[in-house]
Amino acid sequence: MRSVTTPRSSWCRRLVVALVPILAVFMGCKGSDASPEPLPPLARSDAPAAQCGETGHPDCPTQLWMKSTLQAYLRPRNFERLEGSLRALGARAPNGYAGWQEMAAAGAAAAAVADEAGVRNSCKACHDNHRAAFRQQDRAIALF
User: Fold this and answer.
1) Do 30 and 109 touch, CB atoms closer than 8 A?
2) What is the rounded distance in angstroms from the CA atom of residue 17 to the CA atom of residue 43?
3) CA triplet 134, 135, 141: central angle to 5 degrees?
4) Closest alpha carbon to 134 in 57, 143, 116, 26
5) In angstroms, how far apart are the furthest CA atoms of the chain?
6) Cα R_g (the chain), whole angstroms
């Protein structure tokens, strides 16, 4: 016997299929007091990265992520997503960059209260402190 699918049952089935993974994520995260496991340290790349990020070449991995994530959220003032992305950036701070986590956290705190100037200031502080060294030593690593 062939089952008959009505428009309502088809819609309901699609809704359930879409909601199950979302509910699983929320239920798995809710009430968890356990700290997430720390991320493994990022290895510095021995490969020369002289070409990525230069004119006529693709963006470097972190440069691409910052453009497609942080800048993409800052332009339309999507502070909620910007806050989460800055927190993630702080969590992925590479070794040897003192203050990276704190500057990212300051940017996330500014984003939490929709303080665009505060976000921009934290980004500028991090870039002023780390951009030159990161470009020279680690531009080829992918933080994400």
Assistant:
1) no
2) 39
3) 70
4) 143
5) 70
6) 21
User: What is the full per-residue pLDDT of the chain (144 aa) written as tens digits?
Assistant: 555 555 555 555 565 556 555 544 445 544 444 445 554 544 444 444 568 988 888 999 999 999 999 999 999 999 999 999 999 999 999 999 999 999 999 999 999 999 999 999 999 999 999 999 999 999 988 998
State the pTM of this model: 0.65
d(Cα 121, Cα 36) in Å, to the nearest integer?
Answer: 29
b/e sequence 44-81, b meaning 16+ C-beta within 10 Å: eeeeebeebbeeeeeebbbeebbeebbeebbeeeebee
Query: Would you call 119 exposed, middle or buried from its count of C-beta atoms within 10 A (0-12, 13-18, 19+)?
Result: buried
Pairwise CA distance, residues 94 & 126, whole Å? 13
Structure tokens at 136: 């020279």
CA 2 to chain CA centroid, Å, is: 47
